[in-house]
Design brief:
The protein has about 350 residues and is mainly α. It folds into 3 domains: about 30-65 and about 70-110, Dna Ligase, domain 1 (2-Layer Sandwich), CATH 3.30.1490; about 110-175, no CATH class; about 185-335, no CATH class. It is about 50% helix and about 10% strand. Helix 7 packs across helix 8 (about 210-225), helix 7 (about 190-205) packs across helix 11 (about 280-285) and helix 8 (about 210-225) crosses helix 11. The radius of gyration is 32 Å and the shape is elongated.
């Protein structure tokens, strides 16, 4: 009996020593720098088991041994939360840190950037050409003004339809956020009308600091019943909403009958002419208080603003002078001038 008890305790303590040694070895292996000498990208497919993940990382050279990685992931609570996706593991990353990346879901992020002021047709073309997205773009063109321009991050496997849906939801969320904070006595009554005006502001200036001032001019004109006289609205219907024209506008263009012709029709056009960004939405919902009713290009990329028609006419004359000088310089450089 004594022999049995001694043998039992010998085996017990021996087993504990062996288990402790194995645990210590596993811990040291998990903490040690990994074997990779360069950043390594690994794609973990949905549904891969913990042991399958460990083997995949070992085969890719990210970790030295799949066994301690697999054991730790199986028996520690946080280790059971490994997330699938595409990972870019830094060179020499330890198995412990590789596991933490997967617990946190630090997958590779791609991005697509949509500039403010593009039409829905132009945005769909950009999304269709984005190389890291999957699937086709929606067959139905999103409503003009329904997509919020900004940079969208996404994981591998994201579809083009999902990005379009995110843009639509982002616009809904943004206008819902900004509309309750709008100024009083604005000359429009609905969020959609705010988007319409914001789209015009977006197309009128590429200078961020000018957006509030341009918005104020249009707000003042709407309040006084003066037509907006916005060239971008003419370009929109002439180009069929697809993008810019390949020529300059003519006086004949300004006289063409169309609901989007803001020279002939007072008030807002029937819909947006582009997809405005947050800054333009904020500008039309909270414009500065000014008396300005006019603006024209000033030759520096910005605009000259005026309160009276007489002052505006002087600004227009100055702009035409600048245009003529540039034309004359171009003719001289090409050898056709006097």
């Amino acid at each position: 009996m004594r022999w049995f008890i001694r043998t039992f305790f010998f085996l017990l303590f021996g087993g504990l020593i062996v288990a402790g040694a194995v645990a210590y070895w596993s811990y040291k292996d998990l903490q040690a720098p990994g074997p990779s000498t360069a950043d390594t990208t690994v794609i973990i497919d949905y549904g891969t088991s913990v042991s399958g993940i460990a083997r995949q990382l070992e085969e890719a050279g990210v970790i030295r041994d799949a066994r301690p990685f697999s054991i730790r992931a199986r028996f520690l609570p946080e280790g059971k939360s490994l997330k699938f996706g595409e990972y870019k593991f830094p060179a020499a990353i330890s198995a412990e840190d590789a596991m933490k990346m997967m617990i946190d879901g630090a997958v590779v992020q791609y991005k697509v950037t949509i500039a403010e002021g593009l039409t829905s047709a132009q945005i769909l073309a950009l999304i269709a050409a984005a190389p890291d997205l999957e699937g086709a773009v929606p067959t139905a063109l999103p409503a003009e003004g329904s997509l919020l321009p900004e940079t969208y991050l996404f994981d591998r496997g994201t579809t083009r339809a999902e990005i379009v849906a995110r843009m639509e939801q982002a616009m809904d969320n943004k206008i819902a956020e900004l509309w309750p904070k709008r100024a009083k006595d604005l000359p429009f009554a609905t969020p959609q009308e705010a988007i319409v005006l914001a789209s015009i502001v977006e197309k009128e200036t590429g200078v961020a600091s000018e957006r509030p001032r341009v918005a104020a001019v249009f707000i003042n004109r709407l309040k006084q019943g003066i037509p907006l006289q916005s060239d971008p609205t003419i370009i929109y219907f002439l180009a069929g909403g697809k993008g810019p024209l390949d020529r300059a506008l003519t006086f004949a263009d300004l006289a063409k009958q169309d609901p989007y012709n803001t020279y002939l029709n007072p008030g807002l056009p029937p819909g947006p002419i582009a997809n405005p960004g947050r800054a333009s939405l904020e500008a039309v919902l909270n414009p500065p208080e000014t008396k300005e009713l006019y603006f024209v290009a000033d030759g520096t990329g910005g605009h000259a603003f005026a309160e009276t028609l007489a002052e505006h006419n002087k600004n227009v004359a100055n702009w035409r002078k600048i245009q003529k000088e540039k034309k004359d310089e171009g003719a001289t450089e090409s050898g056709t001038g006097n």
